[in-house]
Amino acid sequence: MQTVLITGASSGIGKELSLVFAKNDFNIIVVARREEQLRQLVKEIRDDYQVNASYIAMDLSKLTSAYELYEKVSRDGLNIDVLVNNAGFGLYADFPNMDIKSEEDMMILNMHTLTKLSRLFGNIMIARKAGHIINISSAAAFQAVPGFSSYAASKAYVLSFSEAIEYELRPYGVNVTTICPGATQSEFAKVAAANDKVFRKAPSSKDLAEFTFRAFKKKQGTTANGLIGNIMIFGLRFTPRKMATKIAAMMMK
Fold first, then answer.
1. CA–CA distance, 66 with 166 (Å, rounded to integer)
2. Which of 92, 123, 174, 245 is most buried (most C-beta within 10 Å)?
3. How confident is the model at residue 53 (pLDDT cuts 50, 70, 90)?
4. Confidence class of residue 205 from pLDDT cuts 50, 70 and 90?
């Protein structure tokens, strides 16, 4: 039975991903800051599915957290077959008013930790000539988004980085899938202090988790969920960048 490690799993997309993988007979390791939510999730998985489940309570927005997580998993003798870099958050604010410390934490989590975990666990997968990395990017990765300036830029990094290592790791038998969701019903809007009107009629976290699992099984590369999301991303190829930025700003307000 294979083992999947999922970051940012205490709620929303990460929690639903954990349940979908457990339902499909994967052993589960979940990682996030909020220990009580993780404990409840692990209990739910153990009660409902015949798989092993454990949690690691850790703040992945710290510079050393990727190494600490990797070392703990290694000490426990756990083999990770699938790594899901789901942990991340956004901040909605005009650039001059954005809290610098929160912005730094976001950039560390969204980019630095994701990169380090991909490298550390990816090297083990390369040695085994098998494995799969799933990185959660965003539809925002394809354009500038005023109010979400740093967040959109961080997700553009995730997209570019993931597509590059997808090409590089394929000869070693390691697959990389990049998911670029649009607005999704989760805690994202609350944490980001964003306009929740954009999220009210969006797909649920469960919908996205099931979509992600299907993309994983098909060994897809970069993909976006939903017809509207794909049309939007395709349309950006033909939209002047300044116009796309203005439209994004209007939508978020």
1. 20
2. 174
3. very high
4. confident
Q: Is 84 helix (H, G, I), strand (E, B) or coil?
A: strand
* Residue 44 burial by Cβ neighbours in a 10 Å radius (0-12, 13-18, 19+): middle
- Residue 58: give the domain boundaries: 3-252
Asked whether 139 and 222 are in contact (CB, 8 A), the reply is no
Q: How far apart are CA 158 and CA 139, in angstroms?
A: 11
pTM: 0.85
Q: Write b or e for each residue in 88-106: b if 16 or more Cβ atoms lie within 10 A of its Cβ, otherwise e.
A: bbbbbbeeeebeeeebebb
Domain count, the chain: 1
Strands 27-32 and 82-85: unpaired
Per-residue pLDDT tens for 79-96?
999 999 999 999 888 878
User: Could you tell me which of 150, 112, 113, 152 has the C-alpha nearest to residue 31?
Assistant: 113
CATH number of the domain bearing residue 228? 3.40.50.720
